[in-house]
Amino acid sequence: MHVQISEHIRLRIASGEWPPHYRLKSEPELAQEFGVSRGTLRRALTTLIEEGLLRQVRGRGTFVTSTTIEPAIAQKLSTLSEDFADQGVVTTTTV
């Protein structure tokens, strides 16, 4: 069942219904929407996080990172400035 949910979420991302930086509903809300337990939903989300399509930020939620499937290692390779930008933090450099 978690595979079907992962595919459904993948389709929402690919179609643009959930664009990059989109914040997903809470786990209980998504579990209710799909008619599954939170455990099943978490397995689906974990799959998409490992694929690099989603990113969980503790205390803030789960966000769409990309509309293309990328290896999980590519998600981890980023600069500090990119990480801040992904979280909506504006940085500047003064020389």
UniProtKB/TrEMBL annotation:
Transmembrane segments: none annotated. Signal peptide: none annotated. It comes from the Bacteria. Keywords: DNA-binding, Transcription, Transcription regulation. Residues 1-67 form the HTH gntR-type domain. GO terms for biological process: negative regulation of DNA-templated transcription. GO terms for molecular function: DNA binding; DNA-binding transcription factor activity. CDD domains: WHTH_GntR. This is GntR family transcriptional regulator. It comes from Streptomyces sp. SID7499.
